[in-house]
Amino acid sequence: MHDIVKLREFLEISNIVVSPLKLEQAHIQAFLKYINDLGLSAHSQARILSGIKAFYKFLLMEEMIQKDPSELIEGPKLGRKLPDTLDFHEIEKMFESIDVSTPEGFRNRAMLETLYSSGLRVSELVSLKITNVFFDMGFLKILGKGEKERMVPIGREALKFIRIYLDDVRVHLTIDKASENIVFLNRRGKHLSRVMIFMLIKNLAVKAGVRKNISPHTFRHSFATHLIEGGADLRAVQMMLGHESITTTEIYTHLDRDYLKQVVKDFHPRS
User: Fold this and answer.
1) Hey, how many other C-beta atoms are within 10 angstroms of the C-beta on 258?
2) Is residue 79 part of a domain?
């Protein structure tokens, strides 16, 4: 309704006297030009247009109109928002800010090492099973979106922390029966929640002096970005992340502009 009110206000300002039932495509296009000239972002324009389209779909469903004037109108092209990433120095600062002398601290270090080493989604981290950690092979078996399984390599450092956590920390918990095969548990021996991981990472960022707006997904983005900056094959990264389409992975190729710029600066004879 807020979007329809905006449209109505535009019509009043423009001295266009027309019922919503009689509105034409040209009126909506003029409104979109108006909000663009006001300086609204492409995302805001697209959201407002989405509200107007929903309104006219409703009128069409209720048989109050015969033709949807918004049907053929396309929204502004939206650039894909580049996710925030951490550089390796920032990740190390966060790792170092964890007090590993406490059981929860050691678990937290093991979890963050796993997130960064394997690029897992937070839902995949909290549901990771002990039987799906293959220490001898250096792989995790992950059940991702759409119940699709994938094998993800994991670094030796992360495996070392998982092993110590399982052998020296987790064994002292009274474990809930439903969580017996889950790797990372809370102090009551139960599943961790995604919200808890989110809050943990937010607090660690503050403690480490990292001023970026980060979340568990930031570690996944950083994992992918650092691989591609290091020359990793895009298809391999796609498989590790569990992306259905290569176009989803391609967003990371735009994240290393500063790195590529520096390469030209350092090595090009005319730079």
Assistant:
1) 10
2) no
Give pLDDT tens digits for 124-153: 999 999 999 999 999 999 987 777 888 988
The Cα 269–Cα 140 span in angstroms is 45
Collapse the DSSP code of 157 into the 3-class scheme (helix H, G, I; strand E, B; otherwise coil) and give the result.
helix
pLDDT tens, residue by residue, 194-226: 899 999 999 999 999 998 888 888 888 888 888
List the one residue out of 203, 189, 183, 222 whose CA is nearest residue 83: 222
**Whether the model pTM is above 0.70:** no
φ/ψ bin of 117: left (φ > 0), alpha (ψ from -120 to 50), beta (otherwise): alpha
Question: Which residues are annotated as catalytic?
Answer: 121, 145, 217, 220, 243, 252
Q: Say whether both 174 and 114 belong to one domain.
A: yes
142: its two tokens: 């992950």
In this structure, what token pair is assigned to residue 3?
A: 């979007």
The CATH number given to whatever domain includes residue 143 is 1.10.443.10
Burial classification of residue 145, based on how many CB atoms lie within 10 Å of its CB (0-12 exposed, 13-18 middle, 19 or more buried): exposed
